């Protein structure tokens, strides 16, 4: 097997492993979110993290960040408001504009998610030595850098096509 064939083979194997990790991680995350003390759906969690990242934000900005339609996002945010995890705030400069922000309960719920995820990750990685953890972290960062680079290139291509 020449180098090009070997790279193609390893790329296929890695792609399959990443797909399996993605699938199994999502299933494990859904189990975590369904714990009684957390009680969130995946879209709710994504929305809460996006709001925390953005701080005070408009619904239109939140829809862009989360890649959800305005209608879907409105339903998610309404449920989060009912649970007192998110609050609506009128814009001080333009009272017609409504923004959303996390409540203290929303922050606490996200802290529970992060705590549960760290505990799960500790358990998953318990069989790795410290050296293996360091190597894995470096390799995963390289993979993430490649993904981010590909996304960035695609965003540039999409923006260039919109201009034409």
UniProtKB/TrEMBL annotation:
Annotated source species: Chloroflexus aurantiacus (strain ATCC 29366 / DSM 635 / J-10-fl)
PROSITE patterns cross-referenced by the UniProt entry: HTH_MARR_2 (PS50995)
UniProt keyword Transcription regulation, yes or no: yes
Protein name according to UniProt: Regulatory protein MarR
Domain named HTH marR-type: residues: 7-145
Lineage: Bacteria, Bacillati, Chloroflexota, Chloroflexia, Chloroflexales
Pfam families in UniProt: MarR
Domain of life: Bacteria
InterPro entries: HTH_MarR-typ, WH-like_DNA-bd_sf, WH_DNA-bd_sf
GO biological process: regulation of DNA-templated transcription; response to stress
Molecular function GO labels: DNA binding; DNA-binding transcription factor activity
Gene3D superfamilies in the cross-refs: Winged helix-like DNA-binding domain superfamily/Winged helix DNA-binding domain (1.10.10.10)
Entry annotated with the keyword Transcription: yes
Entry keywords, A to Z: DNA-binding, Transcription, Transcription regulation
